[in-house]
Amino acid sequence: MRSYCRRLDLILDTAEGSVVRDVTGREYLDFVAGAGSLNYGHNDPDMRAALIAHLERRGISHSLDMFSSAKRAFLTAFESLVLLPRGMDHRVQFTGPTGANAVEAALKLARKVTGRTNVIAFTNGFHGVSQGALAATGNRHHRGGPEIPLYGVTRMPYDGYLGDGIDTAELLDRMLHDPSSGLDAPAAILLETVQGEGGLNVASPAWVRRIAELASTSGALLVVDDIQAGCGRTGTFFSFEPFGIVPDLVVLSKSISGYGLPMALLLIRPEYDVWLPGEHNGTFRGNVHAFVTARVALEKFWSTRDFAADVARRSNLLARRLAEAAALVPGATVKGRGMMCGIDVGSGAYAAAVVRRCFADGLMLETAGSYDQVVKVLPPLTTPHKLLDDGLDILLAATGAVASARETRSSSGLVTA
Amino acid sequence: MRSYCRRLDLILDTAEGSVVRDVTGREYLDFVAGAGSLNYGHNDPDMRAALIAHLERRGISHSLDMFSSAKRAFLTAFESLVLLPRGMDHRVQFTGPTGANAVEAALKLARKVTGRTNVIAFTNGFHGVSQGALAATGNRHHRGGPEIPLYGVTRMPYDGYLGDGIDTAELLDRMLHDPSSGLDAPAAILLETVQGEGGLNVASPAWVRRIAELASTSGALLVVDDIQAGCGRTGTFFSFEPFGIVPDLVVLSKSISGYGLPMALLLIRPEYDVWLPGEHNGTFRGNVHAFVTARVALEKFWSTRDFAADVARRSNLLARRLAEAAALVPGATVKGRGMMCGIDVGSGAYAAAVVRRCFADGLMLETAGSYDQVVKVLPPLTTPHKLLDDGLDILLAATGAVASARETRSSSGLVTA
Amino acid sequence: MRSYCRRLDLILDTAEGSVVRDVTGREYLDFVAGAGSLNYGHNDPDMRAALIAHLERRGISHSLDMFSSAKRAFLTAFESLVLLPRGMDHRVQFTGPTGANAVEAALKLARKVTGRTNVIAFTNGFHGVSQGALAATGNRHHRGGPEIPLYGVTRMPYDGYLGDGIDTAELLDRMLHDPSSGLDAPAAILLETVQGEGGLNVASPAWVRRIAELASTSGALLVVDDIQAGCGRTGTFFSFEPFGIVPDLVVLSKSISGYGLPMALLLIRPEYDVWLPGEHNGTFRGNVHAFVTARVALEKFWSTRDFAADVARRSNLLARRLAEAAALVPGATVKGRGMMCGIDVGSGAYAAAVVRRCFADGLMLETAGSYDQVVKVLPPLTTPHKLLDDGLDILLAATGAVASARETRSSSGLVTA
Amino acid sequence: MRSYCRRLDLILDTAEGSVVRDVTGREYLDFVAGAGSLNYGHNDPDMRAALIAHLERRGISHSLDMFSSAKRAFLTAFESLVLLPRGMDHRVQFTGPTGANAVEAALKLARKVTGRTNVIAFTNGFHGVSQGALAATGNRHHRGGPEIPLYGVTRMPYDGYLGDGIDTAELLDRMLHDPSSGLDAPAAILLETVQGEGGLNVASPAWVRRIAELASTSGALLVVDDIQAGCGRTGTFFSFEPFGIVPDLVVLSKSISGYGLPMALLLIRPEYDVWLPGEHNGTFRGNVHAFVTARVALEKFWSTRDFAADVARRSNLLARRLAEAAALVPGATVKGRGMMCGIDVGSGAYAAAVVRRCFADGLMLETAGSYDQVVKVLPPLTTPHKLLDDGLDILLAATGAVASARETRSSSGLVTA
């Protein structure tokens, strides 16, 4: 990882809500949130209590892919609180407990369903670093050297990649329908509705709908990677809810356990559940502790609409204050959607300077984007209004300070980074 | 998964030591041990206590790849109790928390180090089901259809694959040194010293040493996948210790957390640690809860030689009694090493019948091998002598009963499976 | 092959200039010209005489890659008449005698030079059907089923692919320079300046120059596939001469022998000639008979500028009369450059109808394009003005007749194809 | 190319029968025979006369894949003189005119027929250097660097690869039938019955029959690459005739035109001819001049059994005298079958010394094998007894001289090569 907060002398110790403490007792506001794994903050008391209770009653901790009471309870909650209210009848597959594992499973399943190899993925997409997932990931740093050929993926420009005037879905449309385009018929179209690592790029509803339609007409499965954008991060449980589409496959991980525990799942439209028994196996497919906390997370936050309303309010606050921060930096723009947002300050060096200063002032942030040029703001969704404002105050001050310093150096001819 | 104990109406609830209970209160002896993930049994009291304490003091649960007090404590223990006493100076990389993730990292690193693509893997090897790992896995059931081409791996016959008279390392030796053999220079040779899923096939020390030498002379990295055979399963912490070799890369997972929690790591000889910062990343690389229990596991079981001596005693018991069981089945053989053992009963149907009857009598077992023809006996290493004997009694009775039934049906011309 | 003239009852026998005769003595004007292999017409008398002389004096016919007097004479002519006058110092490699063989060699060499795997090719490109070449070919019909994965090529939109307003080179530019685009650094950019099989699509000079510049700045070799467009077909010996660029590698085949004999070569900038001796071998790399006729072709047609001037005049005639033909078909457009041209009539069925009627009237034509919707006009470059006019008369009459018939059927509601 | 006769100052000019002349008039006996492309010698008078007649009557020279009178005449001869007498009903496909082109077509077709990707090829096999063919070729020199991944092929040890006692087909048998071997179900098994470039390794009839049976039982197509060993080189038209097998696909090239002209074809059992029209196309599939000479070759040499009887007599002479030569070199062995034979002298340097001295004495030879350690003797099959003896005299003298020189140096401690 790249940003300053990953300094070697920082040894984290305890954490609660949106605050982490290092071994010296120093506190930090955490606007990284485990890169989206801690949407409900650190050590939520209800999840913690449930996990301790599970431990104390000798609840089983590992049962391969066998059924357990904890798994059953999670599935019941997931079906009643997530799937049914959204009119979805997807099956739930527990893959290995990381997003990359689930992406691997999704691509393998889509290839099996369609009998095709090719997968469409997008510029700046990030889907993990295992070989199958990495083929779909855009980042050159992770794609690595020529000694590991990655294949089976065709890259298409994401929404907005060629600027405002050009609908990039047009290229995909033409190439899909042109028998001489060189685009092999796709097994899947894999996309994030907001590209987290790619720089908080937001796809428009119309573009996503067109892509969904192209998947459908070309016989490909639509796979939404909601690893980072899901679990409420953009305001709804799934990031695609406002768009009126229902993907064939959905990948969830990161915040699905609610507590930062490794867990991932793949949602599969019933007609595409063509796995043979044990075909895609793995030792840690059912992380029982994660089932325990995940169930509590669903019951606590998704039984009513209150949480979504809270997130909407916090999103508005974020949008407003990030705009203030962006106004301090020439050419900067606010990016993202919901509580998955940030400021593109134009260069990685600039963003690193802002992150460094925030860290000194007690705020942890990360960067994202092709050049790490985006200061990424990913607070726990549960961050109280006061703390959110505190963090944004620090960010604004840091942004202002870096901007001033740069201006000064610039006018004195000393800009280096 | 394939065997009977994965029946849908079994819902596991609690577990302690070598015993699991379902929601109806029925108890089972667990000789599956999470496919090797529960070498220290279920819910070890010391690990549980440490994890509860961590939870109660709001110990951080997720910190991406940042340092935490729990990670530091684990690393200290791992270095002083595992690496140093064995004269190893490997670096520790936390990959995604599954064995497949760690295998992916190992292959990627070996390819980066050598600038080569090809990896040598062996017949009946099992290394996971993500795309990069799956390429090295032999099992056709998992390798799946032609729509997912797996490449970059050359398959060689494992020790004993062509019968007793033939040293299969000779083929690898010849092909490595013949410039016209069609074998591309390998980045890595990847092997298990005992093939768990492959049927408890045991490589001889001489064969492993020759393979290690071939890796060295051909400029390939020797990668030992100790996911299932490591953490004491064969009697020593690493399965290769008795052979006098030191692999370049070692993959550990399954029992490394001690408690069945997802965790994996890759040991890297320092000269091969050529990763750039963040090059092989992932959200769940540092499962803090697993660090907590893993540290306790190391301190509790590997501070002295007592545990290894216990495992040796239990291994002897297992070997003796499995021989008795094998004697009941015409043509059956005992397979495996240490407490990673079983009986090859000749057919999957036969093995399934034995496993089914054991389950009915309260003993959980799995099968392994190309045809699931091996009844696999993988008790927790901590299983008390009495319980071990109880389980083996059940196995012997079941084996005898199935053998009799088959004989009867055979003499009446009614054998079907 | 698809078009009507490939009917099974047509058995060709003799040919001279632009006229072929079948075994029944029926004559046809040949505006297919061996898909560009017969730029100088059939059985040119000077080449024929030279070949007969070679045969009569027992000139060697096959000498592997050893030097022969015929090869030496060809190389002398090629250097003095083609390379030197154009300021090129490329080395000449004789690959296997087909265009695909030479494309394979070009891609292999570019990959060896750069140490990269990826090759940029374009929508609607056609480069052959061997596995390496096929990966760069766009046509789905030839790319075939999922059982033959083709990889190592990234497809980009050709000039004009997204309509007039959009410079498709912009996408390549952005993706090359965006470290997170998912585009792996290319070994080569491979293009035809006019896409023959792809539908006579013409790249603009500005677009080609920008692509050449992108190759240069991204460290990729620029490879021009001049198999069909070279040897004078577009008016100059190489199709790229008017654009002021010098490719790193140039692939020639088809008309290079002058007589329709199998021959191919690869031109290599000296600094990229990194082949080891015998690295890219093959039995038929030096087709001696082809050297004999190829030398005559160069001396006869490329010693002065007269031939190019003739081709320019014929190109003008073609352009003018094809415009007349296109005017007869609603929505039809003239396509191509030089004597590599045709009419896009909108559908494969329409084009087939035109070709069928021409054939009945004694004119052989082919179709091209994603849907075979382009009537392709590729006469020998040596076709006398009178014969050219005769052929175009037939084409105009056929186009008119088909247009009328369609209109009639359309107004009577009977259009089917 | 590697051997001495490829010296740059040798410029070949004319040739007749088994004798070639350079531009200075110096003559050489040609025991290279175009690496098997000149089985009937240089400039056979009947083929030459037929080709001159074709040229003089303006016989068409290039007709893409359209029918021509020359193609029809060849096919008639091939069917009546080759296929029918051998009880074969294969279809004939003209691929691009090189062996590699035909191998590419064979593999593509086998993959299409079976829906599988994997192809079994053997150690030391040589099948060409285009990407698809190269994947099946063993030679590391040609397989090249890691920037060109070659895949889709699994390598198995050829007959005799592990010494006399071990039947290497056993490994293939086991791996094919073991569902966990890691060997993906093959589309094809591709083999040469004698490996020309690989060092004149001869497969035994029993081994070939077992491989044929394994292809059949595993649902793979048996593809015999008879490019070098076919057209009479081993004594029968096809090299596999004595073995009582009928391959599903047979690849012919090199001597099929009879005159050293580029030509290749693929024989396909009718039930496997699943090509769509034009699916595997190419400009030079029908080399008309080659059809003319190929027809004459078949009619002249394969209408009666006389030629085969002659070849048998010459083969005996070769075997006897090569044994004499081998006796002069400690450890040397005679290799090969029919008139495709040579001496393994133990090292490439040794073989090069022999070839060099032969060349000085007027005999052209090549080397073969993993280390170029085999002096390869491939005279035209038509070489008169007297010339054959002359050439072998030169070879024996050269072998003796090199052996003496080495012995002398050896006893004086000066061996360098």
From TrEMBL, chains A, B, C, D:
Cell wall biogenesis/degradation in keyword set: no
Listed EC numbers: 2.6.1.76
Functional pathway: Amine and polyamine biosynthesis; ectoine biosynthesis; L-ectoine from L-aspartate 4-semialdehyde: step 1/3
Enzyme category, top tier: transferase
CDD domains, alphabetized: OAT_like (cd00610)
SUPFAM superfamilies assigned: PLP-dependent transferases (SSF53383)
Ligase as UniProt keyword: no
InterPro entries: Aminotrans_3, Aminotrans_3_PPA_site, Dat, Ectoine_EctB, PyrdxlP-dep_Trfase, PyrdxlP-dep_Trfase_major, PyrdxlP-dep_Trfase_small
Biological processes, Gene Ontology terms: ectoine biosynthetic process
A GO term, aspect molecular function: diaminobutyrate-2-oxoglutarate transaminase activity
Cofactors that this protein relies on: pyridoxal 5'-phosphate
Pfam families on file: Aminotran_3 (PF00202)
Keywords linked to the UniProt accession: Aminotransferase, Pyridoxal phosphate, Transferase
Recorded family membership: Belongs to the class-III pyridoxal-phosphate-dependent aminotransferase family.
The protein's name: Diaminobutyrate--2-oxoglutarate transaminase
Organism: Micromonospora pattaloongensis
